[in-house]
Amino acid sequence: MLTIQHLTKSFDGTPVLQDFSCSFPETGIVRLVGPSGCGKTTLLRCIAGLERAGMQVFAGEHQAATVSFLPGMDCEEAAQLLARQGIAVRAGLHCAPFAHRSAGTLETGTVRISFGYDASDAQTEALIRAVSKIPGFRK
Fold first, then answer.
1. Phi and psi, residue 20, nearest 5°
2. Banded model confidence at residue 84, pLDDT cuts 50, 70, 90
3. Is the Cβ–Cβ distance between 25 and 138 less than 8 Å?
4. Over the range 1-27, which residues count as b (16 or more CB within 10 Å of their CB) and which as e?
5. At residue 80, does pLDDT exceed 90?
6. Residue 78 contacts by C-beta under 8 Å, 6 or more apart in sequence?
7. From CA 118, how far away is CA 61, in angstroms rounded?
8. SS3 82
9. Cα distance between residue 120 and residue 75, in whole Å
10. pLDDT tens readout for residues 88-102
11. pLDDT tens digit string along 25-72?
């Protein structure tokens, strides 16, 4: 589960997110709905480490977030589907058997996506669309 507590982000003194807190489930897709300019993309960029906000980000200057998910089908097949769309991912155990054991994914592995520090909003949205179309992925 991903939990965000008291996230605040402003651009040039204009607040976009103010004391934002929420929790996201471990699996599935979460839909962020709101009018243009309300902070949806800013929230995603903060989670991915692409925006520095009122939280500590553990990454170097040219590093960003990594996201792992269960695709609802064989991880290697899901990775191949994404690769055919030009999206590079890693599938399997990712050299972290203890982490997979604690997450309950030791037998299946996950699909891992690493966001580049310069990933654009359009690239992030294309990734979300592609993942949501994987057969068996829970939305």
1. -80, 130
2. very high
3. no
4. eeebeebebeeeeeebbeebeeeeeee
5. yes
6. 71, 72, 91, 111, 134, 137
7. 11
8. helix
9. 25
10. 888 887 666 776 777
11. 777 777 778 777 788 888 887 777 666 554 433 344 555 667 777 788
CA distance 73 to 137: 7
The residue ranges of DSSP E strands in the chain, in sequence order, are: 2-11, 14-24, 66-69, 90-92, 110-114
Q: Which domains, from first to last, does the chain contain?
A: 2-132 (3.90.1150)
**What is the SS3 assignment for 5?**
strand
- 91, 75 Cβ separation under 8 angstroms: yes
In the chain, the amino acid numbered 60 is G
| Residue in 20, 63, 28 with CA at minimum distance from that of residue 44 | 20
Bridge partners of 13, per DSSP, are: none
